[in-house]
Amino acid sequence: MPEPTLHLAVALDGLGWHPAAWRLSRAPVEAPFTSRWWASLAGEAERAALDLVTLEDSLDLQSVLPDRPDGRVDQVRGRLDALLVAARIAPLTRHIGLVPTTSVTHTEPFHVSTAVATLDHVSGGRAGWRPRVSARSAEAAHFGRRELPPLDPARPDDPATVRLVGDLFAEAADAVEVVRGLWDSWQDDAEIRDVATGRFVDRERLHYTDFTGRWFSVKGPSIVPRPPQGQPVVAALAHAPVPYAFAARHADVVFVTPTDAGHAAAIVAEIRAAEETVGRIDPPLRVLADLVVLLDDTPGAARRRRDHLDELAGAAFTSDAAAFTGTPGQLADLLAEWRRAGLDGFRLRPAVLPDDLTAITRALAPALRDRGLFRAGYPGGTLRDLLGLPRPANRYAAPATA
Predict the structure, then answer these.
(1) Of 197, 71, 179, nearest in space to 116 by CA
(2) From CA 37, how far away is CA 26, in angstroms rounded?
(3) I need a labelling partner for 158 at 20 to 30 A (CA). Which of 279, 345, 352, 356 fits?
(4) Residue 101 assigned as binding residue
């Protein structure tokens, strides 16, 4: 039996992931603040039959500093709300998954739950959600509900940092649990919609979530009926043991950041161990590796593009994910090599948009198909179907009897 093909996603952010992308992009500088831009990117990804697009977001302006604004004026600052962008894209696409990012540190899970459930309804079952923690004190200052101590990423083992990270991910875990509970608070057959009898809803099939924890107290039920997927796909970005454990317990897909094939194999092993430790009973996590990609027709042309971008930025590009510079064919070979480490697929971050996205869709995807590593089209169904994830049973429904 042939192995399943790769899952392929793209991470969309502004005019690209390189800080100088806006200086070289073929798109107008104002494009990321228009709905037409996001629709065009999603449409391009869908024409290549990619599994999903993710949309970045945060509660503070972009910054090169770890815990405060940087005051720079030579890089793009500002963005549109990812969930609202996804809702705008939904009716303009038919197959591709839409996975916006939201913070769970300063937002109410009830609001997030209804928004993502609504996205799943209006997209016909193609919604996902990437919860992220907001560790920066500048983000907390926008809300005034609490103060967060400065986070020093250069000292990850500092006791204060360990406590802060632990608390943030514990809060995120509660937030996801609340959201998932609210998605289940309507059973699938709660809506009767019988005009003749005048019964629209079966109140016995609406449920209180009654969640009480350290950070949230949520009664429920949701105001939105159960999403078409039952549970929209939850994705997490993880770099270390604490987020690996969070993903193992609460997510369906995890994005990881290996530096090479050996590192990828080690990360996959650590995630599988985390799944065992937390007693995961859901299907195994779909593990996708992140790569920033800068592509061109020849290796030399790709290097020159990167050098030019770095020169415009005034510094060599750095990222939490590894960066690949070369041709689409070379990238296809690299993905084939890394896949043997146990990865289920890849989430590619285009360095410059739309240039590197079109290189992915029009050159990389065909190269992967030529190698038997990527499908030719969409099989139909929901995002869960596309990722090979079953539709979860409702936690409040009585189990079926034989």
Answers:
(1) 179
(2) 12
(3) 279
(4) yes
Q: Which DSSP string corresponds to 217-245?
A: EE----SSPPPTTSSPEEEEE--SHHHHH
Q: Which fold has domain 7-141+227-387?
A: TIM Barrel (3.20.20)
Is residue 267 within a helix (H) or strand (E), and if so which, with residue range? helix 261-278
Question: In the numeric block, which tokens belong to residue 139?
Answer: 């983000």
The domain spans of the chain are 7-141+227-387
Q: How far is CA 119 from CA 124, 238, 247, 382, in A?
A: 8, 24, 22, 13
Query: Angle at Cα 237 formed by Cα 235 and Cα 243, nearest 5°?
Result: 105
Q: For the chain, how far is it from start to end, CA to CA, in angstroms?
A: 31
- What sign for the dihedral angle of Cα 12, 15, 21, 27? positive
- Is 93 annotated among the ligand-binding residues? no
Residue 204 tokens read as 């016995």
Q: Which residues of the chain have pLDDT under 50?
A: 1, 402
The C-alpha angle 103, 258, 338, rounded to 5 degrees, equals 125
**What are the pLDDT digits (tens) for 328-374?**
999 999 999 999 999 999 999 999 999 999 999 999 999 999 999 99
